[in-house]
Amino acid sequence: MRRLRACIKADLYLQVKYGFYTVYAIVTAVYILLLKQLPSESLKIVTPMIVFSDPSMLGFFFIGGLVLLEKGENTLEYITATPLRIGEYLLSKMISLTLLALMASFIVTLFSYGDLVHGIQLTIGIILTSSFFILVGFIAVARFQTVNRYILSSIIYMTFLFLPLISYFGLWQNWIFYLFPTHASLILIGGAFQSTEWWKLGYGIGYLILWIFIAYPLAHRAFYRFMILKEGERS
């Protein structure tokens, strides 16, 4: 626990140092300004989608940026030589980046939509969505040393994971979208803004937890293969 606390503290320091909080502040301000221009009847649709993008897109790309920065500065070389465990490293990233996502998401919600939301449900949705995307983002970036190759790879991940937006915006309704973890995120976060059936909320929570349990060992294995054994890309 002491190692984990120290790692979280170090991660928070690095996120501030590398300007993650500044970027989040700018993005959050832009979101609020855009949402303020929308009619009130549109906010129930657009606000959940914007809130969803915080823990998903930014969580995915921020973990990628952190890992590439740590590789570039050879920080991971030192980490693998310390008693810090792989699980503690991953958990620290999940906690520190999720705190940032929670802060930004609630600021966007408060200033654009007000406090007429289910706060506990929204919190659970953000935490689970952020945790899942951080793990997937780590899996996506682990093998790469350069930003360009990582970005090309991430396009495939994000295109696939964001397919449920087709259903969210009513372009095509099909049961197959329930197989996507992001569909569970959209239902759970969207349900914080309007009434949703209990079984859908149960599905959202349970399915996201399931996918976190699937993604975590894959991220753990990716760390071992590409950070410790040094497999994969060499340049």
TrEMBL record:
Pfam families: FLQE3_permease. It comes from the Bacteria. The keyword Transmembrane applies. Keywords: Membrane, Transmembrane, Transmembrane helix. The chain crosses the membrane at residues 12-33, 45-69, 90-113, 119-141, 150-169, 201-219. This is Fluoroquinolone transport system permease protein. It comes from Anaerosolibacter carboniphilus.
